[in-house]
Design goal:
Blueprint (H helix, E strand, L loop, with lengths): L5 H8 L1 H10 L2 H11 L8 H8 L16 H5 L21 E9 L2 E5 L2 E4 H5 L2 H4 L6 E7 L6 E3 L4 E9 L8 H4 L4 H4 L2 E7 L5 E7 L7 E3 L8 E2 L4 E5 L4 E7 L7 H4 L8 E3 L16
Antiparallel strand pairs: 1-2, 1-4, 1-13, 2-3, 4-12, 5-11, 6-7, 6-10, 7-8, 8-12, 9-11
Length: 282
């Protein structure tokens, strides 16, 4: 796994750095950065970013005349789109690094000394109670990943909520020392399928990600269609959290992949379930 950058180690691993965190996690800083990253002048940093992160541009569509700004490049589209598995009713919503966590007693245990209350995460105790014996699938996107995402399942949209907050980095060094997911700005969609199973798909912003751009169709009463684009993140690493209201048999092909620090590489549209979704783990 790529080592933490010197700047991130400074901010989260030193006393002077932690004193600076309040400034760097302020959403106003992200908004100011977004002004530059959306300007034509920001195109100058695209080649260096591609080289530094080893991005294979053969995968992506480049507009005639090139990208209009760094953010235009960052939310780039794939040349041929992405493939959706038709063998599963639940798919990976994005390219990223997957961590699987059990939910017990309203808590998601993320690290040795760090527990996340589902109630804090959702800001809704009644809704959180639906997931008391479920699972949390945490997909971390790095700056090198494709930053558009799709619906992970199909069903009726029963709720949509945005929660304002600050914008911590989402790299492991930050997650292990801060309650990042319950502090960061985030949006979530509640999806109910015909069998009355409930899935929550949550997008979490991160440092220098001032905008989570979800489709206007993410409104209660509308229908979520698996594989349909739900939205995109602007610059920075970000996270998508999928909450399941019960334990399912997850795809063994994914579970058997080599993980680094518990994170499994996955691709958008891959099947997450083993066989029939309605068969819960015993």
């Amino acid at each position: 796994m790529k080592k933490e950058s010197a700047s991130i180690r400074f901010l989260y691993g030193t006393v002077p750095g932690r004193m600076c965190l309040k400034l760097f996690t302020d959403p106003l800083i992200s908004k100011a950065s977004a002004v530059f990253l959306s300007s034509r002048a920001s195109r100058a940093i695209i080649p260096g970013f591609i080289k530094r992160n080893g991005i294979d541009m053969d995968r992506y569509a480049v507009p005639k005349g090139g990208y209009s700004s760094f953010n235009d490049f960052f939310k780039r589209r794939l040349k041929t789109g992405y493939k959706i598995s038709h063998s599963s009713d639940l798919v990976c919503p994005c390219d990223g690094l997957l961590t699987i966590k059990q939910i017990k007693n309203n808590s998601i245990v993320e690290a040795k000394n760090c527990k996340y209350s589902v109630s804090e995460l959702l800001r809704d105790r009644k809704l959180a109670s639906r997931f008391s014996d479920g699972e949390a699938l945490i997909f971390r996107l790095t700056p090198t990943h494709y930053h558009r995402y799709c619906y992970c399942t199909s069903g009726k949209i029963a709720g949509q909520r945005r929660i304002d907050g600050i914008l911590h980095c989402v790299r492991p060094i930050a997650v292990k020392s801060r309650k990042v997911y319950v502090q960061n700005s985030r949006e979530y969609t509640v999806i109910e399928d015909p069998s009355k199973a409930v899935v929550i798909q949550m997008e979490v912003g991160a440092m220098l990600v001032g905008k989570i751009s979800n489709s206007v169709k993410c409104r209660p009463g509308n229908t979520a269609l698996i594989g349909t684009e739900k939205g995109y993140f602007e610059f920075g690493g970000s996270t998508i959290i999928v909450l399941l209201d019960r334990k399912y048999r997850l795809n063994s092909d994914i579970l058997n992949r080599k993980a680094v620090d518990g994170e499994i590489p996955v691709s958008i549209g891959e099947a997450l379930l083993q066989g029939d979704r309605k068969c819960s783990q015993k």
